[in-house]
Design brief:
mainly beta
Length: 252
């Protein structure tokens, strides 16, 4: 129903001005990005008894300010729960020149773009191939960028970074940025590419018969690593099994 302004009571032959009270500003459909701010405004004719915002059928109280015939809703930091339907409800109390009633605004739909999948830490042997990937919701077509290094393939809301042949130079932190047009940009969590490799292999040695000989093998990598020595494809027993979380140097 609508509020109606009229000059009454009327006598036969009298005329009256009829004003339909309606919205002059209402929430609009909005695509936004997780973590960004969101603002809606509702404006009506004259000063109503009340002007309220509703989100998914529930009155919104937090972030709402009302000044006479204008109400503003501000969401400081959009979350996934911020998605859904928004509308206003205005209520006019009956008076001498107003037929009371309430009126809902049109409904605005809000979508929130976010990451569905983000890069994770990867352990790989030097020389092998490896992938990292990002995926977002598809409300807005994102443009992905990665730290320089991998070959990047984008397919809609999915971006894959690939290293065909990894080297020690590839080791380090990586992340993806997803730019959603003029709406905003999201940065994924940071993942680390860990490379495992024999950094310094044993070298040939000439020794005098009956004397001691030492061979050194330096291994690079993070995580638990075991060094096994082989002689003509048969394992050579050592007094201790060297392990480390960053660098292993084994002496035979």
């Amino acid at each position: 129903s609508s509020g109606i302004n009229a000059e009454w009571p009327l006598r036969p032959g009298d005329s009256a001005d009829l004003t339909v009270l309606e919205y002059t500003a209402v929430p609009q459909d909005t695509d936004t990005v997780l973590g960004y701010a969101l603002t809606f405004t509702c404006k009506v004719h004259d000063n109503p008894a009340s002007l309220k915002f509703y989100h998914n059928g529930t009155e919104s109280v937090s972030g709402v300010t009302t000044n006479n015939n204008v109400a503003t809703l501000i969401v400081e930091e959009v979350g996934l729960s911020s998605a859904g339907e928004y509308y206003c409800e205005v209520d006019y109390s009956p008076s001498l020149d107003t037929l009371g009633g309430s009126l809902d605004s049109s409904v605005a739909i809000v979508t929130v773009s976010s990451f569905i999948y983000e890069p994770e830490d990867v352990y790989v042997k030097a020389g092998n191939s490896v992938d990292m990937s990002c995926r977002t919701t598809s409300f807005i077509q994102p443009i992905f960028t990665w730290k320089t290094g991998p070959v990047v393939t984008n397919d809609g809301a999915i971006s894959v970074a690939n290293w065909d042949t990894t080297t020690l130079n590839d080791e380090g932190p990586y992340w993806c940025d997803a730019k959603f047009g003029d709406v905003g940009t999201l940065t994924s969590s940071t993942a680390v590419l860990y490379i495992r490799a024999i950094k310094t292999p044993p070298t040939e040695r000439m020794v005098v018969l009956g004397h001691d000989a030492a061979l050194t093998c330096e291994v690079h990598g993070k995580g638990l690593m075991l060094v096994t020595w082989l002689n003509d494809e048969e394992e050579v027993k050592v007094d201790s099994v060297p392990t480390a979380t960053t660098l292993v140097t084994s002496v035979l």
